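Aim 2 progress update. The chain analyzed this quarter is reproduced below.
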Amino acid sequence: MSEKPVLQNGTDLYEAKYRAAGDHTKKAPGSILIVEDSKTQAEYLRAILENEGYHTVLAMNGCEALEQIAVDRPMMVLTDIVMPEMDGYELCCRIKQDKKSSGIPVILVTRLFDTEDVIKGLAAGADDFIIKPFKPAYIHSRITSILSHLEKPDPDELSPGFEVTVANTTYMISAGRLRIFNILLSTYEAAVNNNRELQEAHEQLNAFNEELVSSNEQLLQAANDLRKSNIALEYENTERKRVEEALAEANKKLNLLSSITRHDINNQLLILNGYVELLHGEIPDPSLEDYFSRIAKASSQITSMIRFTKDYEEIGIRAPVWHDLQVLVNNVEKGVIPGQVTIKNDLPAGIEVFTDPLIVKVFFNLIDNAIRHGGDQITTIRFSFKESNGDRMIVCEDDGDGVSTEDKEKIFSRGFGKNTGFGLPICREILEITGITIKENGVPGKGARFEIFAPSGTFREKG
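Predicted structure tokens:
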């Protein structure tokens, strides 16, 4: 036969035959009997054959197949080899030995095969083999070949046959040369086709390996770059730590200098105030009273400025930590003398805020300011927690006089108001260390309302 299993353009031989036949293949009358104990395999074969226009009948084993053949003779039998009760070889022998059914072509369907498999099939009288796994075009090719051979009987089929010994077993082969040749060609084509698919899989595997090698090289390069970045980052962190230690040491020295200077200035102010008071007593001149008042006021302002520098010096000295809001307000309340004012702590339990430790003084100052500047009508200071659309807010509100519209932002400026020391300007700076903001949104005449807004990451629930 001059045909090759694979054409020059790479087309599968079975596919080529399938395309060439198309819908012009003449379908023989009768049905094809499928003998298969696997329901899945049986239905798959049935779908392929019925799609080709053949009528099919199913049998689960050899015994059912013989019963079906006796009732309704099929034009062809496709049988699995490995089955319970009666295997495919025995079924093929029984069909070929019965004069009523000996003319029915039998194709053995098998997954694995070797030389002995082929010889067993020939000895059993099989007309062809179908190797699993198979494709529709392959099934079409084998059935078409069998049907074409029915029209051209093999002149050697009536020969007495010959013996073949394989694996110490002797088999009697009665098939003619043409049938033996066709079976051998069929198995050869199947082997070539499987080899081609194996080559394609091997080529795909090689391509995948090349991609994998390339990916590994890229990963190694990325890992190398990352290692270099880590080294640079480690060096940068070391330098940053060295700078931070130097800044901490410098800050420590500046704080010490500030403390000494503040102490010396306070001593000089005490002396100055003492001499001014003595002078005031020695010169009881009403015309000089205004001057003495201005000196006392200037001295008081200097004292306030010195106190402010001390308060400001403490900001940012210690690292921010988590504070329980409810506990924080309870502790601050213990250090305040509210008088006739009631402090209500409606903050929920377990809510924590990440701030500078001086947050204690912020809450103290909010309560102290409300008591000092709330006027005669103030009766209640209330702390609460609001959360809406991801925004979290601490609210400190009272029912006092409130803050005028024009002063809502001025109260956070240093030097505004009485400036008793630890005021709202420093409160704002303490909160801003961790990105928290504060503003006054109360209604003038109906009470002050301080709203403290916290960005993501500065609030959490315990646990």
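The longest strand covers residues 380-388. The CA atoms of residues 131 and 268 lie 111 Å apart. These observations will guide the mutagenesis experiments scheduled for the next reporting period.
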